[in-house]
Amino acid sequence: MLATRRFLPAALRLRRAAWQRPAIRSLATLAEESSFKIPLIDFSKFLEAGSKAEKRNTADEIVSGFRNVGFIYLDKHGIPESVVQKAFAQSAEFFRLPAEVKSKLEWEDPRSNRGYVKIGRERVTQSADANEIAQLRAKAPDFKESMEIGRDWDKTWKNRWPEEKLVPQFKPTMLSFFQTCHELHVLVMRAIALGLDLEENFFDDQINEQFHNLRLLSYPSIRTNLLRQEGQARAGAHSDYGTLTLLFQDSVGGLEVQNPHTKTFQPGTPIPGTIVVNAGDLLARWSNDILRSTLHRVVAPPVEKLSETEGITPARQSIAFFCNPNGGAKISCLPTCLGVNGENKYPPVTTEDYIVGRLSVTYT
Fold first, then answer.
1. In what residue span(s) does the Fe2OG dioxygenase domain sit (predicted)?
2. 3-state DSSP assignment of residue 222
3. Could you give the angle at the alpha carbon of 247 between the alpha carbons of 356 and 166, nearest 5°?
4. Mean pLDDT: which of 222-226, 234-238, 255-259 is highest?
5. Dist. CA 66–CA 293, nearest whole Å
6. Chain-wide mean pLDDT for the chain?
């Protein structure tokens, strides 16, 4: 075999090498794609741990997931399924209200980040250029509507609630769900602290003001060919702004997560009973990019066929709880995350300045 290869004509050897090189790259790409999987974490092992060492085992799994992928599936997290389903039912009831009723509650100010956002008003993207985002919005707006809810005791910014008679129990249901999500956020941040070699309660007094955002999301059904136009998606590729996002999905699907190595998007397929949790920009900054804020998007899931050439993408619901540090918290590199020579990739920034800045260019 070696002798045969030695006496191959030069041109043939070059062609043969050219055939082989793409195959090698392809195998490497396949290996990177197969290793890029959102890990499933049994959080009950942390909640029921009898020792710090047992907690640390789960904490390491969580930090590893955020380090390698930026996303985890959180299983056995302690939030009853009945609580989640009640929130979904109330959300669906709200979005069934007439457009003229919802428009009276419209989102008005990035400092508030509260109220109803109609289809096409938001265009999530990684760009920070207002003109570029305006062009993207005009060409391919995000095909979704949302309702944004913040902490209800804020003296400056008020939530915008529908009348009780229109959606009975909507306000108490959402406020209770907000609190439930905050409490889970605290526990996950304690796990992250342990996984980063910090004291377990390191983040407690930096997230206790509940400077969070509960987002109810409705993706109406749409003809699939409209979602396949250039740049169009139900929600464009973006990273989230805060520390963590708790995402509650229905069974329709559509979430995709970008593999940072291959730049391909892979499905974040719904797993019943789990919460998809991803790290956001401020957690990435806090950790000096040890924890990854990964690009993701929402695209068309499998379609219902209308004809040989056309289909319809079914309606989808989700609820996202965007977890943030306190508004005035100074986000600078954690002491255990500095580079080998003390490098810090990012200048300090406050939570409010960063998030308001990002929201200001995302909405019209």
1. 210-325
2. strand
3. 80
4. 255-259
5. 8
6. 83
- For the chain, how many structural domains are there in total? 1
User: What SS3 class is residue 282?
Assistant: helix
Q: What is the pTM of this model?
A: 0.82
The CATH number of whichever domain residue 144 belongs to comes to: 2.60.120.330
Per the domain annotation, does 5 fall within a domain? Answer: no
Domain membership of residue 121 (yes or no) is yes
Higher-confidence residue: 301 or 332? 332
In a domain, 22, yes or no: no
Q: Which domain holds residue 98?
A: 38-362
Q: How far apart are CA 257 and CA 177, in angstroms?
A: 26
Query: What residues contact 185, with CB distance under 8 A and at least 6 apart?
Result: 207, 212, 243, 244, 246, 321, 323
CA nearest neighbour of 224 among 307, 138, 310: 310
Structure tokens belonging to residue 350: 């406050």
DSSP H or E segment with residue 85? helix 81-95
Q: From CA 325, how far away is CA 284, in angstroms rounded?
A: 13
Mean pLDDT along residues 224-244: 68
- Quote the pLDDT of residue 124: 46
- Show the tokens assigned to 130: 């207002």
State CA 76 to chain mean position distance. 20
Tell me the average pLDDT across 133-143: 46
Residue 321's nearest CA partner among 268, 249, 255, 246 is 246
Report d(CA 356, CA 110) in Å as an integer.
6
How many C-beta atoms surround the C-beta of residue 279 within 10 A?
30
- Look at residue 31 and tell me if it is in a domain: no
CA angle (33 as vertex; 28, 39 as ends), nearest 5: 140
**What's the start-to-end Cα distance of the chain, in Å?**
67
pLDDT tens digits for range 68-119: 999 999 999 999 999 999 999 999 999 999 999 999 999 988 888 999 999 8
Q: Does the pLDDT of residue 142 top 70, yes or no?
A: no
Position 210: which residue type?
A: Q
Cα 26 off chain centre by: 29
Question: Cα(239)–Cα(73) distance, rounded to whole angstroms?
Answer: 17
Quote the distance between the C-alpha of residue 296 and its chain's center: 7
To which residue do tokens 């136009």 refer? 229
3-state secondary structure of 313: strand
